[in-house]
Amino acid sequence: MAGPRISVTMPCYNCGATVAGALDSLLAQEGADFEVVAVDDGSTDETASVLAEYACRDGRVRTFSISHGGVIRAANAAIEASRGQYIARMDADDEALPGRLAAQAGLLDDHPDVGLVGCRVRFGGCRRKCRGYARYVDWTNTLLDHEAISLNRFVEFPVPNPSIMFRRDCLEKHGPYREGDFPEDYDLLLRWLEGGVRMLKADAELLVWNDPPDRLSRTHPRYDVDAFYRVKTEYLARWLARNNPHHPVVHILGSGRTTRKRADLLLGHGIKFAAYYDVDPNKIGHVVHGLPVRDRAEAPRPGEGFCIPYVASRGAREEIAAFLEGRGGRLGRDYIPAA
């Protein structure tokens, strides 16, 4: 008997309080032929019994338990057990909004050149207490087509992991989540983009992305800021080798200590800096590690050099982009943001 068209893979660990809601939101989906593959990652609460109850109640839910090994192992186990042509991700504390599966499968049907799709997501946390996370969600929701996703990949994770659906052959060609001291979801996205996978998003809110205080992205060192910069630097260096006409020389916009710490990771990959550029008169004219800090007005114009903005303060990326593009610069050709 043929398997379902879509497999929703859900790693579960000590999520007894939320997994029923996540499953209910999936089982209410209409217009899609799907299964839910939920893997209990050695939970010590009632997660396994909740999953078993749903599996008995609805044949679309398949579940099994493994010894506790972490979210990467559980996610890959769910993917390995899946049977669908299209594979979706879902976290056990999130909510699929009506039409999610049908809309994303429809995008893949309509765009045979696209390998992975996401959607706009609804922030499920407190915007007042978690302003940074909420702003991140708002930003990801502006990136809908492949060009926007691809050219903003080094800013932050442009497609929230629980929102993705992808073709099985992409998985077979480019590999699943990898273990390491880096965010596995960001690594997968960067690896697949580097491998030529095209990506799109449905222009609709199809997932509530909740933000509990114990979310792994808040508590595990694999997801801290430094880990994101380590993994993005590796892929950025290879991107520059292919796309920077002045390779290996780049111009760094920003000269603060944090900017330099993050940009300097590129030096270990053979990238060379011509100079730092800043708007702070207290920094302009200084020499840092043998490199001058110049007025931003002296940054190379299009065709003269390739710029990488590394300033992460609120609004800085947009302001720098407006400055560069006001002089004729083009994203991806003359500059690429990395913060």
UniProtKB/TrEMBL annotation:
Superkingdom to which the source organism belongs: Bacteria
UniProt domain Glycosyltransferase 2-like: residue ranges: 7-173
EC number: 2.4.-.-
CDD domains per the UniProt record, alphabetical: Glyco_tranf_GTA_type (cd00761)
Alphabetical keyword list: Glycosyltransferase, Transferase
Molecular-function annotations in GO: glycosyltransferase activity
Gene3D superfamilies membership: Spore Coat Polysaccharide Biosynthesis Protein SpsA, Chain A (3.90.550.10)
Cited Pfam families: Glycos_transf_2 (PF00535)
Family affiliation: Belongs to the glycosyltransferase 2 family.
Protein's name in the database: Glycosyltransferase
